[in-house]
Structures are given as structure tokens and as C-alpha cells.
Design a protein that fits this description.
Elements lengths: L1 H28 L4 E9 L9 E6 L12 H10 L3 E4 L13 H10 L5 E4 L2 H8 L1 H4 L2 H8 L4 E4 L2 E7 L2 E8 L18 H6 L7 E6 L5 H7 L3 E4 L8 E2 L3 E2 L14 E5 L2 E5 L17 E9 L3
Parallel strand pairs: 1-14, 2-3, 3-4, 4-5, 7-8, 8-9, 9-13
Antiparallel strand pairs: 2-14, 6-7, 10-11, 12-13
Helix pairs in contact: 3-6
Length: 296
């Protein structure tokens, strides 16, 4: 009996020590910024977009990197992007939480390069459930400058010389953000929003939830930018992310570059957190992606 108590005491101490270490590491990691660079080589990339530079941001959740997010904005400026893509959850979707800080950060970024913004689940619920969230979405969206292109299940064409890239901002329904279970995406969901894909042209998706990457790729998205998973919060060597906001342990899509039938997805580890502000081996991330036309 005494031996069992000793073992339980030792285990309790080890757990407490691990929690303390995680909190200390998380405290310092949450204040750092890392740039992850990718090169996307694809013969389908139009010639005029060879060397086209995209900066991708996601899941700020009101995180502050310096006063008025000056460190974040400065790092993005140093990268000299052609365009900045933001895949949602810049705010924290809780009643009464400030939205001006996130909007002002996006506005400042629009002075660096053209910004396209698509919703995450936090903006989505603030826009739908106004009885709970009041004017949160209205206050946020109305504060954005006209230069910020808000894409809500919309397509925009990016022109360069005589070539074009199709960019889509996908605003998933609440059912496709359910926790614990993965709700199947209706087979005609993307076609009903954007029509059938022209496979002769290049298509980029901004889609907050990466869980439907196979569906995005099957529709015809050559390159998808996503977030939402926060890198799995705690990342273990050789294993990856531990837990997603969907309450999925060891999610298949956690952070990094993924491929599906010669289509690509870059999944950001995000910049901030909301309910559980824990990051271990998972520094807040700015994504830098350069497109290259790969000759056959």
C-alpha cells in the first residue's frame, strides 16, 4: 500500500513539473515569431507569376507582437510580399472581446501589400449568431479599410501581365467546424459555390479548416492555404501536433506542407491562441511561399 502511494506521489510530482515546464516554455514561445519558407513548383503556375511571393497569416486571435503589432508588421514588410493572404480567426469570438486591434493590424498590413482576407470559425460565428455576439462582426468588418479584400465564398482574379490566377475565399458553414467528429462535406458543396473548376488555369484556395483538403484538391484547388489547428498546440518530435481545436488528438493535418494528387496545402501553425494559450515546440508562424513555374 505504501509503495502504491509513493508511486502515485511520484507520478503527481512529475505531472506537475511537466505542466510547469510547459507553461514556462509556452510563455516564451508565444512571444516569438518564426518565418517558414516554402517553394511551390508547378508547371501549371502561369509564367508571369514565376517568383510570385505570398505571405500567409492565420489565427492571430488578438495576439500582440509589440505595440500595435509592430514586430509582426515589420517582419512581414521585410519579406517584401506581392500579396498577403489571411485565412481567418484574427479575432477571438467571445462576446465583448475587442475587435479593433485585429482590424487595425490587418489595415496596417494592407499598407505593406494587397491583403485578401477570408473568415475563420471565430469570425463566422460572430457574423451569424448576433444574439450572442451583438455587433462584433459588424464592428470588425466595418473597420477594415477598403484596400482589404474580404472574400466570403467569393473569387477574385489576380492579374499579372497577360496571366491570371484565381483566388477563392472559402467561408465554411458551422456544421463543417463541429468538434470531436468530422462532418462530411456534401459532394456538390464547392461546385455550388464556385462552379466547376477549369483545370487549365491555376487556382488558390484560402480555406481556414484544413480537414477538407482532399475535397479542395478534388475540386481543383492547386494550392490551399489553411490554419485553424494552431500546429497542434504542443508538438512532439517525430509525432507532430498533439491536439487540434476540433478536439482531435494527433490530427492528420497539423502544420506544414501537404500534398494530394499533385495539389498542395500549406497549413500555418498560426500566430496566437484563444482558450488554451499553450504552445510548446510550436513558435507563432509567418508563412512565406514563393511560386515557381516548373517546366516540363
Amino acid at each position: 500500500m505504501k509503495l502504491c502511494l509513493n508511486i502515485l506521489e511520484i507520478l503527481s510530482i512529475l505531472i506537475i513539473v511537466c505542466l510547469i515546464v510547459c507553461l514556462i516554455v509556452s510563455h516564451f514561445e508565444n512571444r516569438r515569431l518564426n518565418v517558414t519558407r516554402y517553394q511551390i513548383r508547378d508547371s501549371r503556375i502561369p509564367a508571369a507569376f514565376n517568383g510570385y511571393h505570398i505571405v500567409h497569416l492565420s489565427d492571430l486571435h488578438n495576439a500582440s507582437f509589440g505595440e500595435q503589432n509592430e514586430r509582426l508588421i515589420s517582419r512581414v514588410k521585410e519579406l517584401e510580399p506581392d500579396i498577403i493572404l489571411i485565412t481567418g480567426d484574427m479575432i477571438i469570438g467571445k462576446p465583448g472581446v475587442d475587435v479593433t486591434f485585429a482590424a487595425d493590424t490587418i489595415n496596417a498590413l494592407s499598407k505593406v501589400a494587397p491583403v485578401c482576407f477570408s473568415m475563420g470559425n471565430h469570425e463566422l460565428r460572430a457574423s451569424i449568431y448576433t444574439d450572442t455576439y451583438g455587433d462584433m462582426w459588424k464592428d470588425f468588418s466595418s473597420r477594415l479599410l477598403p484596400e482589404v479584400k474580404l472574400l466570403q465564398d467569393e473569387e477574385v482574379l489576380i492579374h499579372k501581365e497577360s496571366d491570371v490566377i484565381h483566388l477563392y475565399g472559402l467561408n465554411l458553414t458551422p456544421e463543417l467546424y463541429k468538434r470531436l467528429i468530422r462532418t462530411p462535406m456534401p459532394s456538390d458543396y464547392l461546385v455550388s459555390l464556385f462552379g466547376k473548376c477549369n483545370f487549365d488555369e491555376y487556382h488558390i484556395f484560402m480555406a481556414h479548416n484544413p480537414d477538407y483538403f482532399k475535397e479542395y484538391a478534388a475540386w481543383g484547388a492547386n494550392l490551399t492555404f489553411a490554419g485553424h489547428i494552431h500546429g497542434g498546440m504542443i508538438r512532439l518530435p517525430l509525432v507532430g501536433g498533439v491536439l487540434s481545436p476540433m478536439i482531435h488528438f494527433f490530427p492528420k493535418y497539423d502544420k506544414g506542407l501537404f500534398t494530394e494528387n499533385n495539389k498542395y496545402m500549406i497549413l500555418s501553425g498560426g500566430l496566437g491562441n484563444h482558450t488554451f494559450k499553450i504552445r510548446v515546440n510550436n513558435v507563432p508562424e509567418i508563412v512565406s511561399a514563393t511560386l515557381y513555374q516548373e517546366t516540363m
